[in-house]
Specification:
745 residues; Alpha-Beta Plaits; 11-stranded mixed beta sheet; 32% helix; globular; binds zinc ion; binds fe (iii) ion
Length: 745
Amino acid sequence: MQAAEVKIKGIVQGVGFRPFIHRLVRAYGLKGTIRNTSSGVTMELEGEGEAIRRFLTALPTEAPPLAVIESITSREIPWKGFETFTIIGSERQNERNTLISPDISICADCLRELRDPADRRYRYPFINCTNCGPRFTIIEDVPYDRPKTSMKAFPMCPNCEREYHDIENRRYHAQPDCCPVCGPEVSFLDAAGSAVTGDAIELARSALKAGKIIAVKGLGGFHLACRCDEPAIAAELRRRKQRDEKPFAVMCRDAEAARKICLVSTAEERILTGARKPIVLLRKRCDRYEHLSENGYIGVMLPYTPLHVLLFGDDIDMLIMTSANLSDTPIQKDNEEAVEALRGIADGFLLHNRVIQTRCDDSLCWVLDGHEYFARRSRGYVPQPVTVPQLKGHLLACGAEQKASICAGKGEHAFLSQHIGDLKNLETLEHYEKQIRHFERLFDIHPETIVCDLHPDYLSTRYAQERAERERIPLRQVQHHHAHMASCMADNRLAGPCIGLIWDGTGLGTDGSSWGAECLVGDYTGFQRFGSILPIPLIGGDRAVKEPYRVAFALLQAAGCETDGIRDAVRLEKQLKAGLNCPRSSGMGRLFDGAAAILGIKELCNYEGQAAILLEAAAGESGEHFPVCFVPDENDTELLRFDWRPMIRALTEERQTGADVPVLAAKFMNTLIEMAAEQAADTAEKTGIRRVVLSGGSFQNQYVMQRLPNRLYARGLEVYHHRRVSCNDEGLSLGQLMIGNAGKH
Ligand code: ZN
Ligand code: ZN
Ligand code: FE
């Protein structure tokens, strides 16, 4: 007989880990204890030496799908003679350290029962178990148990109660457990919001098949669903939703259905079908699906709740599933409000009476090196923390303005919020403030430092300033691109110093101007700017961001090229000469916008980043690039700026001599890749630093991400990209947190 102490580090709380251990321990005839610690769990195990060894081998392979095991260490300890196996601690001293699970898609066991006519939960839309079901979106407060969730309205029936208390049962301690006798129900309303009698799911299914647009209440909010094989229906949805050109996400019944419209690699299939079920950007099979997406990709997800599974049945292959929100306000989550807000948009409503406590949009990613590369990290991932080195106390980082997120941290955990949206209207700001309080309560965080952006006009900055003043908490303002760099460092568990290639839309620089194509050197304590691009005058300020032809004019004019082909050229020239509302920006996003407009790809943007996305989509194959030239900055001799004028001249000339747009779009991006490789290699030579982190929203570009790392490796550099959080402003709060932490004593 043997006694061992086993320490498991990683994310093993709030993912059904302890019930799993409990069952595994029984299977191997072991006795002892398990308790949560700040970095994972610690067990004391007693039993046959061979049984302990087999237990340790089984543990990582059989662990619940969302558990992230970073390390398992075991050592022999003195024999105590335990008579049972018990879960200790969490109800007492460590209670508030308990992590909360993200929402988990329906598991294979529940799916089997859902389809089994003999099962008491046959076709029950809210079937769940210890390994699956709603979590984050139904939790009101901690400790996480039923009375503190939306399930408090549904007392368990004796059968469910029995399962809940039975350690052998796969619903042991599953807080949202329920059945048709005791649990939530679905209902169907017509366009006017009046209840329709009958089988709600069948009513919704026939309406969808007949080409109607149906609002469907899901896990973290409402979707608008409709057929995706009819361009006219998609067009009608666009008209009603006032979503002119932005791509729609599609929900496919299974991976096989997804393959009918997209190419699906093995890694993509693994992520599509996994327990988290994000929307995955997949390459379109052909050009037939313009009505779904105007670029080369379609965002596809698979059904993740039993309700979705029933909605698809055997005969619906795929549906448009777009989040139901109005003009940049947060996703709808409450029945009455949704019916009110979506009147005139939805032809019917598939509702249920389980309250969505916390809204949470679908996550969105594409697959890079076999892993999720996030555009939006939300449902299925939040509120699982990003593990970081021990923080010095409690911190709150307030994020940026677009793609706002917050990050609250303590111990070894950084908790990033779900997708909140652009902080531009009252509804989103309210949602944002509510999420801050919610995270602080759930994870027992009392900020001792608040961190925010330098930009004085961001509503997140104002929130941070007001709160810091009101509660007398020290405030730290962090430069935008430094935070991006720190975010990618923390994402890769790097301490520093690093070279940061930050390609971004815009962010306020320390000199008061707008930055966004930066080559920085630094760590969490500070940074120096080594590279950027020549600033671009934005004629009309913010209007130039929405109207790339304005940027095209500025680029062409500076490069000494013809500007006749540009709309409003005369007026733009006047405005530029007078210097009227022409702030300068060194944002990479603007360079993409300008090139897209020069190439005639997009002159007016309908949504953020559209011109850059379409330029990427237009790119063909070319191994060539335009000239890469640098000029020293006028004031800062250390700072080398990429001179884009020779590139613009070459691009314009080749366009005039009849070169194809796909080739020119590829050569444009190749030029920027060469520019970055040159910058990084030069900076590495000057500083002796060889580690390069890539961050900023422009690195959502797949063409660039599939080529730039190789160009950097070829220069003998180490390259790190985001893996756990998004490269865009949504991931910024993690970097802010780390910089705020480094400044603490
Ligand atoms: Zn399940
Ligand atoms: Zn029940
Ligand atoms: Fe940014």
